[in-house]
Amino acid sequence: GAVVSQHPSRVICKSGTSVKIECRSLDFQATTMFWYRQFPKKSLMLMATSNEGSKATYEQGVEKDKFLINHASLTLSTLTVTSAHPEDSSFYICSAPRVGSSYEQYFGPGTRLTVT
Amino acid sequence: SQQGEEDPQALSIQEGENATMNCSYKTSINNLQWYRQNSGRGLVHLILIRSNEREKHSGRLRVTLDTSKKSSSLLITASRAADTASYFCATDAGSSGDKLTFGTGTRLAVRP
User: How many helices (H) and strands (E) does chain B have?
Assistant: First the structure.
């Protein structure tokens, strides 16, 4: 069964609004989670590393004020796309490192964001 | 930026045939992993090979790693229609739980 969940799975919003995406680890704690963005038929691009209890680490070129990340607890990280624009439309995926087996990661099912 | 390049970008084979996908990377790594993604879904971990390993097997999967050439291959034997998916290699160069850098992916289509 799924060990990382994301909510919502799909969301459509209007330009200028903000959208929050949740990533939860189920039955395990994750001090670190990762947020990726994926365009159609393309690879995953790491956006940021979410750290429980501290600020997220953003990859080069990713606007931290645009993509707000909050790692509120050991099982929850949220990504908020602020003032969304059509070009923010994408597939957003989170992951958490597998407990006890280092390096492998569990991925959430992804969230399809469409900004109209 | 993407470290890994994969080829082919797309592969179409008949059920029962073998599928080989290749991945190249640019920097030193600790491990290389292969993931599978069904259309519009999350990724599923397939296999991990450490930098000091050269070959690894898991069921119908065979992975090789050549650190001198900075390349890896994934072989799926006796393919099934259910193997249709995108396959990505991913590398990490840091400590446990570190971020992964993904390749460009290979879209595999297995015809029944």
Answer: 0, 11
Give yes or no for a contact between B32 and B49, defined as CB atoms under 8 angstroms apart. yes
pLDDT value of residue B2: 37
Chain B interface mutation, best of A36, A37, A44, A91, highest count of B Cβ atoms under 10 Å = A44
Strand partners, A73: A76
The beta-carbon neighbor of A107 closest among B4, B43, B98 is B43
With a cut of 70, say whether residue B110 has pLDDT above it. Answer: yes
Of B45, B103, B105, the CB nearest to A105: B45
Distance CA B13, CA B111 (A): 6
pLDDT digits (tens, 9 = 90+) for A62-88: 999 999 999 989 999 999 999 999 999
CB pairs under 8 A between A and B: 62
A106 contact residues in B (CB cutoff 8 A): 45
Specify whether the CB–CB gap between B106 and B89 falls below 8 A.
Answer: no
Among A77-86, B40-49, B85-94, B97-106, top mean pLDDT goes to A77-86
